[in-house]
Amino acid sequence: MKALFLDIDGVLNSDAYDRVRDWNILSNIDETRLPLLKKIIDQTGAEIVLTSSWRNHWDNDPSKRDESGVYIQTLFEKYGLNIFGKTEDFGQVTLRGQEIKAWIAAHNVGAFAILDDYAFGWEDLTQYVVKTNPRFGHGLEEQHVKKVVELLNK
Asked: Against a cut of 0.85, is the pTM above it?
């Protein structure tokens, strides 16, 4: 299987989005980023694996999702996106690479890519990381789509 390890904050939103979004409703995800994510999935056949802290709100079992987990699921479904699973939460962002390695070891993963805005702590996974820039960009952009597709279709 191909796996796309997906962070949400900084990938599916940005500082620019935060300036225009409606803060009175659950609107953390910039929907203009989801067609780009769909493009990755359509061109690679990869499965989405959440690595974001948002994974603590989502579960494969719908009865274990809180309001934020339902929000993520509903929005992804609106764009024809399926969340396959999530990594275990080891408790610190700097351990995200270890969480991904553990998930890979437990599943039959061939090609994979990591889509994240965090730059540090990847060690031997660095070559698989496509880093977004939510400060000066819009999170996920066309240039990132191209890099992720190349990694997954090697």
From this structure: yes
30 or 96, greater pLDDT? 30
The superfamily (CATH) of domain 3-152 is HAD superfamily/HAD-like (3.40.50.1000)
Domain coordinates in residue numbering, the chain: 3-152
**Predicted confidence (pLDDT) at residue 153 exceeds the cutoff of 90:** yes
Phi, psi for residue 146 in degrees, rounded to 5: -60, -45
List, as own/partner pairs, every contact residues 70-77 make where C-beta atoms lie below 8 angstroms and the sequence separation is at least 24, other chains included: 71/26, 71/28, 71/29, 72/8, 72/29, 75/29, 75/31, 75/34, 76/34, 76/48
**Strands of the sheet with 129-131, listed across from one edge:** 83-86, 47-50, 3-6, 112-116, 129-131
Tokens of 123: 């060690």
Q: Give the pLDDT confidence score for residue 93 in this predicted structure.
A: 60
Q: Would you say residue 94 has pLDDT above 80?
A: no
- Rounded to the nearest 5 degrees, what angle is found at the Cα of 64, between the Cα atoms of 58 and 66? 60
3-state secondary structure of 51: coil
